[in-house]
Amino acid sequence: xxxxxxxxxxxxxxxxxxxxxxxxxxxxxxxxxxxxxxxxxxxxxxxxxxxxxxxxxxxxxxxxxxxxxxxxxxxxxxxxxxxxxxxxxxxxxxxxxxxxxxxxxxxxxxxxxxxxxxxxxxxxxxxxxxxxxxxxxxxxxxxxxxxxxx
Length: 150
Hints:
Layout: E1 12-19, E2 26-30, E3 37-38, E4 47-48, H1 64-75, E5 82-94, E6 97-106, H2 113-117, E7 122-124, H3 134-149
Parallel strand pairs: 1-6
Antiparallel strand pairs: 1-2, 1-3, 2-7, 4-5, 5-6
């Protein structure tokens, strides 16, 4: 996926997920290159902060809805296809500084397999994503826990 990435994503990423309202099937979007972070992967050597860590980002915070709007535009989605999932905000320490990760959820009855395939992406379950970098696996674990508890 060769896309122009807005500056706001230098220190922010999104996980794109689907959760079935009836079946509770939970899937995450995966880019062709393998990352589950959008619009770009985390740098190598990234490490997720402890869940209870408080991080002073030292910058103006970007509202997740702004990021969701930007990713809709980047991927060519309708403005109402994704929404920011409240309560999910994780921090990752990277060689380039702290990255804040939010989660966006598809507003669909069925998983968006075909839609994501047109972008060179796949929808995957958590077990299908085993073997990803540790920071991504930790973000996915926390996202899955959040969705199952909520």
